[in-house]
Amino acid sequence: MTQVSLENLISGARAGLLVSFPTDTVPALAVVPEKAALIFAAKQRSQDKPLILMAASATDLWPYVKGSENEYKVWQEVADKYWPGGLTLVLPASDRLPKVMNPIDPTTIGIRVPNSAIAQTILAQTGPLATTSANFSGQPPLQTMTEIETQFPQVLIATTEYQGEMQGIGVPSTVAKWTGRNWQILRQGAIELEISSDNQV
């Protein structure tokens, strides 16, 4: 039985164990960034599919990316508009990001703040975590904690008292990559990103 209290899940995550919790999109498989290799192994995930760095607030994420003053301004505007929510921004990574998060191309990182009370509660206490959907690579995201427990028996999962909050919308986040001048949509998902001239450099 891998269902644990929120307190134990948070301490497990801090200790470098794999955990799973609900988000506003699909349930996440998460671990501290330095241990990201555990996610690749558990999911049988190809190294060329980077993970997403998720945090309780944008402030926690900005140290992991780097850009010009103008770029930060654009990124901040988009973050202010869509976060917390189902939008992942792929931005140039700073030296603070562990290379295991994106082994093939450690120069970029996807970042996101989920619009989920339980996810934010966890992330506020663990700090930013490496995350991805909870499923074997190439398969649809698992939607319930029972499915996750069956497929990933080694993962710590939030107990059933939070099941009411378990259901996200079931659609992964939209992924938008910064090209240096504007946004390129890599995956259309939960959010329709309105790209205006204000969101460009």
Structure description:
This protein is of the alpha/beta class and 201 residues long. It is built from six helices and ten strands. The protein has helices at 6-14, 37-43, 58-61, 69-82, 117-126, 145-151, and strands at residues 3-4, 19-21, 28-31, 52-54, 87-92, 108-112, 129-133, 156-158, 174-178, 183-187. It has a ten-stranded mixed β-sheet, sandwiched between helices. Helix 1 (6-14) packs across helix 5 (117-126). The termini are far apart. The model has no long low-confidence stretch (mean pLDDT 90).
Please write out the topology:
Layout: E1 3-4, H1 6-14, E2 19-21, E3 28-31, H2 37-43, E4 52-54, H3 58-61, H4 69-82, E5 87-92, E6 108-112, H5 117-126, E7 129-133, H6 145-151, E8 156-158, E9 174-178, E10 183-187
Parallel strand pairs: 1-8, 2-8, 4-6, 5-9
Antiparallel strand pairs: 2-3, 3-7, 4-7, 5-6, 9-10
Short description:
This protein is α/β, with parallel strands linked by helices. It has helices at 6-14, 37-43, 58-61, 69-82, 117-126, 145-151, and strands at residues 3-4, 19-21, 28-31, 52-54, 87-92, 108-112, 129-133, 156-158, 174-178, 183-187. A 10-stranded mixed sheet has the order 1-8-2-3-7-4-6-5-9-10, sandwiched between helices.
Helix and strand content put the structural class at: alpha/beta
The backbone outline, from C-alpha atoms, is globular
Note poorly predicted spans: none
State the helical fraction.
25-40%
- Compute the separation of the termini in Å: 51 Å
Give the radius of gyration: 16 Å
Mean pLDDT, to the nearest integer, reads 90
SSE string: EHEEHEHHEEHEHEEE
Q: For this entry, what is the oligomeric state of its chains? A: single chain
Number of strands: 10
> Tally the helices: what do you get?
6
Q: Bin the strand percentage.
A: 15-25%
